[in-house]
Amino acid sequence: MKSLAALIIATLGLLLAGQSRAEEAIVLRFSHVVAPDTPKGLGAEKFKELAERYTQGRVRVEVYPLAQLYRDQEELEAVQLGAVEMVAPSLAKFGPLGIKEFEVFDLPYLFPGWAALHAVTQGAIGKELLAGLDSKGIRGLAFWDNGFKIMSANRPIHMPQDLAGLRMRIQPSRVLQAQMKTLGVVPQIIPLPAVHQALEMGVTDGTENPPSNMLVQRLSGVQPHATLSNHGYLGYAVIVNKAFWDGLPRDIRSALERAMSEATQYTNRIAETANAEALAKMKAAGSTLFHEQTAAEREAWIKALEPVYADVAARIGKDRIDAIRAATGPTQ
Ligand code: LMR
Is the CB of 275 under 6 A from ligand 1? Predict the structure, then answer.
């Protein structure tokens, strides 16, 4: 009798423990390296809001901005190992995964504008690129925009030859390395949060950024000149640990997919405005002189950077570049 009572009590205990475990929210940590008031930072917060609403609190999203959890070079490994569930590295940083196809996004003057870009990232090519991440233990969920990069430096850089001899900070990408070398620049790989100091101390002379990152990192205070070159794109792939994602209950996964789809539309809607506003603020502050390219200058930059295509084509195949160009239309 005594042992039956003990068994009932033990069973009840187990049931209650199981119930409270079931009620515990699933925690999804979203780590990124930029400030909360950038397109990616705002997108992460929007995803959190929608994910928690659509799962009725069964998922709790914890957003860690400013590389609080993982820095540039650690993010991809952390998500592969499941040390963090979600990250959104810049497309320029996928090299170490061995997914060469992502390199195309760094090609200068590949996208004539936003519509052409979205034809790739939000279309069939984008889907295929994200699916290619599965083999790396990662599920690719979405492409998020930041914007088009402008070149800045400690001296005027109107024509491509004006860059020769400068030391310029780049993200860790072979294409960006090739781009800078083609311009006679010494490329320096430096994590974004350290760029302000590198410029201030004169360790590096210039950099390339979308205006939103340039503003938030206070780079305009240490870059007297910039050219509105819009020569390259900076965007992100939002990715999750595949085992985590596949292990989620089906209804939770569909709620998160809905949240991600809406957060993607939101981020890509605000990115262009966020960059235009950032540029306007820096122009008003007056510490950087922003040069508008003439048509002839732009033509000269496009021509000077053309050799980068041969370099990338040799590694990822000309057919891939051609497929993207067919989707985007020619550079204008
Ligand atoms: C950079 O390193 O410049 C960017 O990739 C940072 C970011 O995530 O926007």
Answer: no
